[in-house]
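Fill in residues.
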């Protein structure tokens, strides 16, 4: 098998608005990223995924692009961007850019032209109809907005300020490939393609919409021409650079990627599948939280490992609550459970992605008023609530489910504003109150910190071929509290055993195992024999067998 740079890689996802502010406007910036590159290097990171930094009115924090070839002035200038790329490469790290190809901002010149008249040459860059159908937007009750100039509706699967591009139009596709070349020429190493699974649209006939999550699988994603568009993108972009000796990495965002559908995506380097991220979303979607079924959670990874040539492993990102608060116990066992998920993240087959702040075990924030929420999805949901009861229900849903939890500033130290921005400056999102206890500076000094554990597991993953490419095999999948799996190659075999509960659990492996060495654990002492393991709450052990 060819061994490509991103295969043993560990990416770190930077959400620039919340990473580090250096120009005192309360919003993170590119100079802030440059300032912290040594921190990422010391963490063992091999690549950076940079969330959108393009010119944008920021209706969806940059996922609404108004100029694909310009830098959003709040983040910096093109010169600073170029310096950042050089500084990343100087440290032997790679960088991929988040590219939003499914939609633009409504302030993009294409859309301004498109809406100006029915016969404008850019009219066909977007989806226009005389009548809306029953499609819902991810953020709003309907996916169609009436534009008064021509009295037609345009499609927006997300915000009204994010009209969907019409990929069926070859001109649109050509524009997009040129944009990709533009950034590759500047030296970036690849892209995370936003909403890749949604760029080819089903026909717009009205169809039943029984359950919003099913809608993602059956109507919005995996559209009829998707495979053709993806293959064409790879031919026009990746293959062209291959001829010049560069291995361009493309990871697609893939809500709706499921068993039986991966063949659509086989030409891109990798895909993010989202099934584990939607498990606790009920028929009403994200704000209809259901208890997490941990057996199903494991089964998803088993199924997707079989389905995908090369998986991308992530357990959180900027669109979901904090990892330790969502899947772990962010109170009594915060440190143990954050470490457990760090070990899980680094020991499944695939390229691993750490979301900023998870490496120090950052938690959800406790909101005081609805004004604390900035995410357009939360803001819109609030507008839709009519009664006090609906408000109370939304409040409890936002407490656990809001995307905002992942977007609070990184807690760098115990100074005011957690060192994210200067004292006296108001950060765009509130800093979580626990920053004096949970921050990078403190974690660096504490050998038992989540951060120092992450360093060790990242280092293990990037240096060990078995952990990167070895087979992944799960046993006793029906066990509700234990995740027990093996990674094996011709050279080595590892057993990873995780207690995903706050209880003490005695676990017996399916067969007796010969223990060679405990490689790493989140407890200093473990009770392991070849036939039985006694696990403390959230105990996680990596054993060579
Ligand atoms: O968070 C979700 C729904 O509540 C996800 O389904 C998410 O909307 C979906 O994965 C697409 O996300 C991406 O595109 C959005 C943007 O808001 C997200 O931040 C981005 O990750 C629109 O560009």
């Amino acid at each position: 098998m060819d061994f490509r740079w991103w295969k043993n890689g560990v990416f770190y996802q930077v959400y620039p608005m919340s990473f580090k502010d250096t120009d005192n406007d309360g919003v993170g910036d590119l100079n802030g990223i440059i300032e912290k590159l040594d921190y990422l290097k010391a963490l063992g990171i091999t690549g950076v995924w940079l969330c959108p930094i393009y010119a944008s009115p920021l209706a969806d924090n940059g996922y609404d692009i108004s100029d694909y070839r310009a830098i959003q002035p709040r983040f910096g200038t093109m010169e600073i961007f170029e310096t950042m790329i050089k500084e990343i490469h100087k440290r032997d790290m790679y960088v991929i850019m988040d590219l939003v190809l499914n939609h633009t901002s409504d302030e993009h010149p294409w859309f301004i032209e498109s809406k100006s008249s029915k016969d404008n040459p850019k009219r066909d860059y977007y989806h226009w109809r005389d009548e809306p159908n029953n499609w819902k937007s991810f953020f709003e009750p309907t996916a169609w907005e009436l534009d008064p100039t021509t009295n037609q509706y345009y499609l927006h699967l997300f915000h009204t300020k994010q009209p969907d591009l019409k990929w069926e139009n070859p001109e649109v596709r050509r524009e997009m490939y040129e944009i990709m070349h533009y950034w590759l020429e500047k030296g970036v190493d690849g892209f995370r393609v936003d909403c890749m699974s949604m760029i080819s649209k089903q026909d717009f006939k009205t169809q039943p919409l029984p359950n919003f999550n099913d809608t993602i699988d059956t109507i919005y994603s995996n559209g009829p021409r998707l495979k053709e568009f993806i293959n064409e993108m790879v031919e026009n972009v990746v293959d062209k650079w291959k001829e010049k000796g560069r291995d361009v990495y493309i990871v697609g965002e893939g809500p709706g990627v499921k068993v039986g559908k991966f063949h659509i995506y086989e030409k891109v380097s990798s895909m993010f599948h989202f099934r584990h991220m939607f498990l606790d979303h009920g028929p009403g979607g994200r704000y209809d939280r259901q208890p997490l079924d941990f057996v199903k959670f494991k089964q998803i990874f088993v199924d997707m490992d079989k389905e995908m040539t090369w998986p991308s492993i992530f357990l959180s990102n900027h669109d979901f609550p904090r990892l330790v608060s969502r899947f772990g116990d962010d109170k009594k066992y915060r440190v143990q459970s954050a470490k457990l998920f760090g070990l899980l993240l680094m020991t499944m087959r695939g390229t691993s992605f750490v979301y900023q702040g998870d490496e120090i075990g950052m938690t959800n924030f406790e909101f005081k008023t609805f004004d604390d929420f900035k995410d357009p999805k939360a803001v819109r949901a609030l507008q839709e609530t009519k009664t006090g009861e609906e408000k109370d229900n939304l409040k409890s849903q936002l407490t656990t489910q809001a995307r905002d939890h992942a977007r609070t500033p990184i807690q760098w130290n115990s100074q005011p504003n957690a060192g994210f921005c200067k004292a006296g400056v108001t950060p765009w999102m509130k800093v979580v109150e626990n920053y004096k206890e949970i921050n990078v500076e403190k974690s660096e000094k504490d050998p038992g910190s989540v951060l120092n554990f992450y360093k060790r597991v990242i280092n293990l993953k990037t240096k060990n071929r078995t952990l990167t490419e070895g087979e992944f095999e799960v046993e006793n999948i029906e066990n509700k509290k234990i995740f027990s799996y093996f990674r094996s190659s011709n050279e080595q075999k590892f057993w990873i055993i995780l207690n995903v509960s706050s209880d003490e659990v005695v676990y017996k492996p399916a067969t007796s195992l010969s223990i060679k060495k405990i490689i790493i654990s989140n407890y200093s002492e473990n009770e392991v024999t070849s036939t039985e393991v006694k696990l403390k709450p959230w105990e996680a052990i990596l054993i060579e067998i």
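Residues 226-243 form the longest helix (18 residues).
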